[in-house]
Amino acid sequence: MKTATHQVLSKxxxxxxxxEGMRLIxxxxxxxxxxxxxxxxxxxxxWSPKDNPCLSMLTVEMLGEGTKTYTKKVIREKxxxxxxxxxxxxxxxxxxxxxxxxxxxxxxxxxxxARELSEPSxxxxxxxxxKSRLESxxxxxxxxxxxxxxxxxxxxxxxxxxxxxxxxxxxxxKFIGKTTRQNLASFHKKTYGQADAIITAAGDIDLSMLSDSxxxxxxFARGKKINPEQNNAKALxxxxxxxxxxxxxxxxxxxxxGAPIGITKKHPDYYPLLLGFSILGGTFFARLMNNVREKKGxxxxxxxxxxxxxxxxxGYWYAFAMFAPKLFKTGEQAVLFEIENIVKHGxxxxxxxxxxxxxxxxxxxTLASAQGMAAILLDNAEQERPHEWIDNYVSMINAITLExxxxxxxxxxxxxxxxxxxxxxxxxxxxxx
Length: 433
What we know:
Helix content: 40-55%
Number of domains: 2
Low-confidence stretches: 1-6
CATH class of the largest domain: Alpha Beta
Number of helices: 16
Mean pLDDT: 95
């Protein structure tokens, strides 16, 4: 049964189109005198050229470093004086932004946002600082055994041309090092400003003010919509194999176990499989946490789930765990036992009921805040789903049967395709260094 919140959401929201190609989706909440805005434009990794996959990320990193009208210092002073914030991010397909401001300051903050998006100056000094910061961040990540294990894990699952592939630190630093300000300017000119903006807002909504503000400030986003270079890359065919990355002087060793699933979020098997992995390792009371951590005391942390299936990409399943080096072999076997057990024997009706209740509860909590509401509206729109999908999500989860979950697990978790990558203070035979 739908809850009242779920039933009325699609009826509470309003979608308008301030300019051609822009979707503005708003929903009023009980947040008083403030507005939460999330949005996105074309500009994610898929738009980067093959010879520099970091270009989209570097462009996003530089958006807050100043515009042709205002320096970074002026922008930050303006935002701080208003108690407002603007943040940028990117993923495989789109660049995103999030805004927090008082209702009365919305037009001014949207104007600042539009200037950062449409006329970044890419100042030379700040560009070198950003590049140096990112290279230092990569060096830190190379010391993180979980990051090392996950990176190699994804490399073994996907070809370099796939959006789920992750370059190692040396390659990333090479791409960053060769990028110029002209590269950023050319990428920005080609990619940003297409008539394909999606914006969501929640809180104390004045629709007329919002619509007029975006119509005026986002006049740059009227360009012809173009398609990124076609990318039909699929996951690699995997056979059971294991790899160890030995890293000395670490107090732990991390492991990733998994394989491609070959489906996207739109596939009918996706959510039954997602529920199965929630039962395996998606919550504190899931099997991995309960059996490997709580009962056996083998791990600091462990988790399982699905990844990489957004935006039409074929995803993967994974299980992650961290062990003290001396417990690694025992811990790995314990995780593999839980994976094999859930494949061979499936999940129980009680487990499925409990995890459905968890999904329902966490979804309600997310929708209870303006920030959560805006995020869900944006994700739903980016995935090209109707507004009613949000209303029906919990009902859809509750309608999934035990037979569907267990059939999906058996179908997509094949023990002869499992890839295992470990990184930490263990040798090639997985003994402590």
